[in-house]
Write a structure and sequence with these properties.
Elements lengths: L1 H26 L1 E2 L7 E2 L1 H29 L12 H4 L4 H21 L3 H27 L3 H8 L4 H21 L6
Antiparallel strand pairs: 1-2
Length: 182
């Protein structure tokens, strides 16, 4: 009974910590003229999925998005509230939940070496791009070509770097935490 309570508390604390990591990483941003900043939130979502797994990693990003939805200024540029979540770039914030989910699932399935982790994180990032781009297209009535040129192509190099760093950090943490975080 005691171990179960400790495990449950540990998971909740880690979930909160990774939600806070996402909030902090969102503020490390380079603004872009069309409103979708380059920030480190994808890095945080990849780390949450790889370190906490699909359930708790997804939960941590769901907490992050829920905080934003109720008005806590956790999104890039200290934005929050329904207007930020349901605005033209809100699909990317919601997409971070998918990033953590797919990263966690695929990291578990493919293994925790560099290339498989990068693949897992790239698929997670692609899910975020898909949701966010469709959301952007719907709200702005943009074509796919316009949405891709504004919301995907400029971000690919930075996201590739974030994925590589997240995979390396995951591997290093695995070496130092042989029993994992959870």
């Amino acid at each position: 009974m005691y171990t179960t309570s400790v495990t449950r508390v540990r998971r909740l604390v880690l979930c909160a910590l990774f939600a806070a990591l996402a909030a902090i990483c969102s503020q490390i941003a380079i603004p872009m003229p069309w409103g979708v900043p380059i920030n480190l939130a994808v890095f945080a979502a990849c780390m949450a999925g790889s370190m906490l797994g699909p359930v708790w990693g997804t939960a941590s990003l769901a907490v992050y998005v829920a905080l934003a939805a109720i008005g806590v200024p956790v999104l890039a540029g200290f934005q929050g509230g329904p207007a930020a979540i349901f605005g033209k770039t809100g699909g990317y914030a919601v997409g971070y939940i998918l990033t953590a989910l797919f990263t966690g699932l695929l990291a578990r399935l493919l293994g925790r070496r560099f290339v498989p982790l990068c693949v897992a994180m790239a698929v997670g990032c692609a899910a975020c791009y898909l949701l966010g781009t469709l959301w952007f297209m719907f709200l702005t009535h943009s074509t796919l070509l316009v949405a891709l040129s504004l919301c995907v192509l400029p971000y690919l190099p930075a996201d590739a770097l974030k994925i590589a760093l997240a995979a390396l950090l995951t591997i290093q943490l695995d070496r130092r935490l042989p029993h994992g975080l959870l």
